[in-house]
Write a structure and sequence with these properties.
305 residues; mainly alpha; two-stranded antiparallel ribbon; 7 helices; 76% helix; elongated
Amino acid sequence: MKPAMETAAEENTEQSQERKVNSRAEMEICRNHWMYLGSKNHQYSPLPTEGKRLNPLSHPGCFECCIKCLGGVPYASLVATILCFSGVALFCGCGHMALAGTVAILEQHFSTSTSDHTLFSEVIQLMQYVIYGIASFFFLYGIILLAEGFYTTSTVKELHVEFKTSACGRCISAMFVFLTYVLGVAWLGVFGFSTMPVFMFYNIWSTCEVINSLQTNGTAAVEQICVDIRQYGIIPWNAFPGKICGSTLENICNTSEFYMSYLLYIVACAGAGATVIALLIYMMATTYNYAVLKFKSREDCCTKF
């Protein structure tokens, strides 16, 4: 008689061979079944007729993807960014050229001594450098706010699973809300400051209109109508001549530098107003996004517990 261990080993060998045969048979059956189904699915199908042709826009996946992408666009931030870029460009470009024209008019007609308008020229040059910095800062800040609007809009509407609220994201949104409020208040001051040269040039222009009307009526009191630029604080009171009267003032108003500077100041003031409106839109958009993100974070915490 064979030992018990040898008998058990032979039985295990026979069982493993039977399993291999069975598994091979099952694999062959599955392969034949798969080939049969593949040949059945790839049968010839006739081309759709003209009335039954598929419309590429009717595909639900493409349409839903487009709607999803359009739903994630922060339209308020987009409008505010366009308005902000336009306003800052008008304010900086036109303001820079108008300041240069103002210095030229002052040096040629109202202050013959260089020492009288040295301080004013230095202030104008400093303001021109500040304009360069404002343009660069708002270009970057507008792009950052637009990107933040895309992120928060996608998070609020839950368009992407990977976009979720976090404490860091809410802190960044709160920082943008605070910074936008500060910039809005600052630009209200800039808008008010930009109206001052418009007011000054308007007074000079209206005085020239009075002189023209008096000359048309034949009145001889034209030389008594004057404009004293020293009363605006631009140059000191001992500056010469400082005051221009009559026909000399009319000649200044007829120069291209005067009209160009006047129009540029008006456009710069309008640009500052457009920037204020853009910052107000930014305030509303960022505040709303922050409030919704904070509410969603509280809702998520409640659902966890």
